[in-house]
Amino acid sequence: MSFSKRLKQCLSTIALDSHGPFSNLAELKTHPAHLAVFINYLLSIDSPNSLFFYVITDAFQSAQGSPKDFRRWAFEIFTTFVIPNSPLVIPNSDQSIIQPIDKILATTSEQICEADVEILKRVFVPGRQRAVADINEHMANFRQKRQLGKRFSQL
């Protein structure tokens, strides 16, 4: 079965008056197929950067590893999503988000210790809050378009 057929089937199984997993982000995260539908929607209308940032930082916060690994992962997230002109920059990324991350990343890999892991896990929280606001706005638009009966090909 093609992706578009699965997509239509998925959308038709959810009653239009009920938003199902599209009601909120926490619910959406637990339904991979619905998350894929929402990502497809974001790719067709705008940028999925906020959602990708949210999902990756969610995994980052629950990951296990050495302090050096966490520093490396934080650097990758920072350079991919947070700094201006990065490939997948999140909306509203400003100095209040950038500076705390930059400060902890300035610690050399030889200086980083176990205590820094918890700091690294929390350093993306302000960016995540802004990403969630952006995702919620996109989800509201998605729900509205679903209720209007528009199909992805009409977007």
Nearest-angstrom radius of gyration?
A: 18 Å
Write the CATH homologous superfamily of the largest domain.
Regulator of G-protein Signalling 4, domain 2
The shape, in one word, is elongated
User: What class do helices, strands and sheet pairing give?
Assistant: mainly alpha
Total number of domains? 2
What is the overall number of helices? 8
Which CATH class of the largest domain is shown?
Answer: Mainly Alpha
H/E series: HHHHHHHH
Could you tell me how far the N terminus lies from the C terminus, measured between alpha carbons in angstroms? 23 Å
CATH architecture label name of the largest domain: Orthogonal Bundle
Q: Return the average pLDDT rounded to an integer.
A: 86
The total beta strand count reads 0
What about the largest sheet? none
| Poorly predicted regions | none
Query: What fold name goes in the CATH topology slot of the largest domain?
Result: Regulator of G-protein Signalling 4, domain 2
Helix content: 55-70%
Beta-strand content bin: under 5%
Domain Regulator of G protein signalling-like: 19-149
InterPro entries: RGS-like_dom, RGS_sf, RGS_subdomain_2
GO biological process, one term: G protein-coupled receptor signaling pathway
GO molecular function: G protein-coupled receptor binding; guanyl-nucleotide exchange factor activity
